[in-house]
Amino acid sequence: MAKGKYIAEDIKILEGLDAVRMRPGMYIGSTGARGLHHILWEIVDNAIDECANGFADTVKVNLYKDGSASVEDNGRGIPTDIHPKMGVSGVEVVFTQLHAGGKFGDGNYNYSGGLHGVGASVTNALSEWLKVEVYKKTVHTMEFKSYLDKETGKVKSGVAMGRLKDTGKKTTKKGTFVHFMPDATVFETIAFSADVIQRRLKELAFLNKGVNIEFSDLRGENPVTLNFKYDGGLVDFVKYVNDGKNCLYKEPLYGFEERDGIVIEFAIQHTDSYTESVFSYVNNIPTPEGGTHETGFRSGLTRVLNDVAKEKRVLKDGSFLGDDFREGLTAILSIKMKNVQFEGQTKTKLGNPEARMPVETTTHDVISELTRNKKLSSVFDSIMQKALMAAKVRLAARKAKEIARASKSLEGASLVGKLAGCSGRKAEQNELFIVEGDSAGGSAKQARVRQYQAILPLRGKPLNVEKKKLDQILQNEEIRTIISALGTGIAGEFDISGLKYDKIIILADADDDGAHIRAILLTFFYRYMKQLVSEGHVYIGMPPLYKVYKKDVVEYAYDDKELPKVISKVGKGYMIQRYKGLGEMDPEQLWDTTMNPETRSLTRVTIDDATEAERLITTLMGDQLEERKKYIAEHADFNKVDGYKDLLKK
Ligand code: TSJ
């Protein structure tokens, strides 16, 4: 297949890519839906970098009917000349060398390439084929393939089908176009999720002001194209997160500075709510676990606002705590730096100690400068008022005690009215099903094995935990019932030894409402009962979408892809029922598909899933659900794709 001789260097290169295929998890985390999207982000990141460096302003992402994806920018084009050390074109280096990302060129390419991880060569290694076009006066093309080497019986990865070729075809375009087909033998699924992609591209557009990002899903009957471009960048991001909330001042405060080689950018705006929402990023990668940059940001903010408080003589004595200034705060912090080190449970926490001081100083100095602006006086007045209220509540003490008491008072059976408990007393065998809707709840109660399966129907939606203070959350009946049923208490009072169930199984519909309920519950567990998730007690039950049956045969399909397989299994004369929701299933069906340990399909929730659910709830979903639903309804093609399901299934 691959023609021509290879110099020694090439052979090493190819072994490098083959190693990626041997252990994909080492390079992209998983071979599930996450990993699949990861190889797209590797390409997108390169195009975004070209924009961030000022050489391009547009990135287009396309999904095609055959399952492939492409990314195009209007930048300088990957270098086509021969790389002095490697002796092959820059393009070939980029796609065949691990970590080749930002190795050539000059300091322009500071924050790019390998930083996200591994670069374009990994995408190449895990693709069935990959095609590149570079537009620089003429069109240059190159193609790579992975194939089975008949001699060795081994799969070769990302092999160049000839060198980079100047087709001679004239073009007025500038830039790079990369088109690839994820390898179905590597990934558990090669179905890209429009929802996941759309959400991330929107986030990237917020984080990279002025960059025009276009996303076309060409897979369905009618193509759908979305455009994201935010000239306000982080300011627009904060406004978006705060949309629908009562903001204490109209324009977010914004800072941008490069200090000690770190590019620091932030925007903040206070609302009348009680939660603190600080979202941080390093090199466009979310850091939900925080880290040194966030620490610096918080202390800089606390310090400068306490300066203001002194100057305005807001407090007679003493000073505010950082918490007081962060009540109702929405903030986005985005930094760019080299040699990033991630740590933490999910490797989403910035570890570099050298990031803290520059961020602290910049935050302090920029905001301090803003206080000199007379027009912003009222902004700082309202921040002070808010902090004063927060401090009063705090000084009136007891917040912690309140929580403790509230949590304690929930113990005992008084609130578990709706719960159909189980009779067995062995917690390690017991299962609690949290079921969306009274109707499905009723079926579940009839179907269950009373001895070890308990059912808790959720009537409404549990409230969006993000927006509320803990004591408000404790007012919510659905949440109170869950807390009292579990027997562990919450937050500071959480004690896993009280847990009455080994498995907590969330059963919600396979639609957007169901996705929202799952995300809210996960966010709640993640925030207030984290150990429940980290010790693997939380599960998602997956109801099927179709029943395929005839006389005495019944089979279920869990998604559209599975349907044809199931149909052929049942054979001639089959009939199909599509479930609109759990509520349509009778007890027996519910038992077979989602409750019977022998036949059901459960997914254990990881801390990673929960972090992601929380992040989506707090940034990219939030109050926008109604909007989003409207949007989805108007774009029928997106209906097939369910963001959270994708995520939660993994
Ligand atoms: F991922 C990827 F490598 F496949 C890829 C790279 C995909 C896409 C869609 C775009 C790109 C890309 C790379 N866009 N722009 C660039 N730029 C360079 O590689 C480049 C160009 C010129 C110079 C220079 O120093 O003159 C340096 C670099 C790194």
Task: Walk me through the structure.
The chain is an alpha+beta fold and 650 residues long. Helix content is 37%, strand content 22%. The strands form five sheets. It has a seven-stranded mixed β-sheet, sandwiched between helices. A five-stranded mixed β-sheet has the order 8-9-12-10-11, sandwiched between helices. Helix 13 (438-447) packs across helix 19 (587-595). It is flat. The two termini are 35 Å apart. Mean pLDDT is 85; it is low at 1-12, 100-118 and 631-650. The protein binds ligand TSJ. Ligand TSJ binds next to helix 3, strand 2 and strand 5. Ligand TSJ is lined by residues 43, 46-47, 50, 71-73, 75-76, 78-79, 94, 105-106, 108-109, 120, 176, 178.
**How would you sum up the global shape?**
flat
Number of strands: 22
Ligands, ions, cofactors: ligand TSJ
Oligomer: single chain
Secondary structure class reads: alpha+beta
Main β-sheet: number of strands, strand sense, barrel status?
Answer: 7 strands, mixed
- Average pLDDT works out at 85
Concise summary:
This protein is α+β, with helices and mostly antiparallel strands. Helices cover 37% and strands 22% of the residues. The strands form 5 sheets. It has a 7-stranded mixed sheet, sandwiched between helices. A 5-stranded mixed sheet has the order 8-9-12-10-11, with helices on both faces.
Write the layout of secondary structure elements.
Blueprint: H1 8-22, H2 24-28, H3 33-52, E1 58-63, E2 69-73, H4 90-96, H5 120-125, E3 127-149, E4 154-160, E5 165-182, H6 194-207, E6 212-217, E7 224-228, H7 234-241, E8 253-259, E9 262-270, E10 277-282, E11 285-286, H8 292-311, H9 322-326, E12 329-336, E13 342-343, E14 349-350, H10 356-371, H11 377-395, H12 399-409, E15 431-436, H13 438-447, E16 453-458, H14 470-473, H15 477-486, E17 503-507, H16 512-528, H17 530-534, E18 538-541, E19 546-550, E20 553-557, H18 563-570, E21 575-578, H19 587-595, E22 602-604, H20 607-621, H21 625-634, H22 643-649
Parallel strand pairs: 1-6, 10-12, 15-16, 15-17, 17-18
Antiparallel strand pairs: 1-2, 2-5, 3-4, 3-5, 6-7, 8-9, 9-12, 10-11, 13-14, 18-22, 19-20, 19-21
Helix pairs in contact: 8-10, 13-19, 16-20
